[in-house]
What we know:
The protein is of the alpha+beta class. It has nine helices and 15 strands.
Amino acid sequence: MVLARIDREEPYYADRSANELTRYGFTVDIAPALQEEIDTEWTWADYPVPWCTPEEIRQVSADAQRIHDDIATGRLTVHLHADDGHNTVAVGTYASGVRRHVHLHGENHLRQVAMVYEDEAEAMAEFHRLYTVTVRPGPAPLTDLEQSVRRALRGETAPPTRLQLTEAQPAPPTVAGPGEHEQFLNALFESRQQWAKHRIWSDETTIAAHESLTVRAEFDHEARHRTDIAWTIAEYDGPVGERLWRATITAGTPVPLTHAIIDHLDVPLPVDAAEPDTPLKEAGWSAASHPARTTWQAPNRSAAFEYLPHAAADRWTVFGGDDANRPAWSIRLSAGVPHDLLIQLNAAVAEVASPPPSVSRRSPPVSRLPAPPAQLRARHR
């Protein structure tokens, strides 16, 4: 049996199924990789209503899944579809039930019933009035997610040949493997004398302190899961001054991105870009604005960069993995982070998210960091 859903909640429903089977006396064995997914708390990175709780988001997704299943099984027939400028909309009729004639709004896990009509002719006429020249007959073309779900349900491991007409997308960004950040930390101390190693009372944490006494990086050796925070980096306005900004980096983050932040703290590279998103625009990333945030996404949807103008703790977030909508890693930076650091970090993100086709998906081995120039950064505030 195959479980494939457009809301990406397979681990949650697999866990519910396992619990029900166990309750009725069946012995259930869950593979370790699936158990890790079940235990991972996640949400959609670009969810349009971020104030919803995980339970509310799951309910909206479940409703969208039911609409998708009704269309796939023929219980709901879609007569017309259109584009309202932001979303796909449609009008359709259920084969039975009270809510027979409906207007639909959105795609995939966000599709919902927008309006209900008692008469099919009224529903069709109102749809034409609302969307005029954008109205097209029949259902909208299947989204990439819908196609992947249907391929999985058919037992196909790859899309049909007729769907392989476009140029292959670059490989997704690397997710750091076990021990890669430990190797990077050791290489940092071996190669750059301006970073001093300190251990606190617990062996679980190592502190890397810069010789300027204004930068401190804390590494958690117990960060096992890819979404656990492995690094906490902060910069201060003096040896005993107030904190200027703070960043957290999860264990699954590609090491080159941590490398980019450390490089900037040592010697910031000269940048010509005026805005943090300039490297992303040059790499062909697309931007989507919302009153509460702006999100840039890589062409292959493997990474994203988000700006929350009203947030203090996590004003800037970089995240990615095989699917940026379900991040396997993240970097969160507070308000106050220098724009030249953001530009340098985003340049590295753009390169990691779109490697040349011949580049391996694994991170390159980290044995020794290149030494920075002799003229180290002067930290005057």
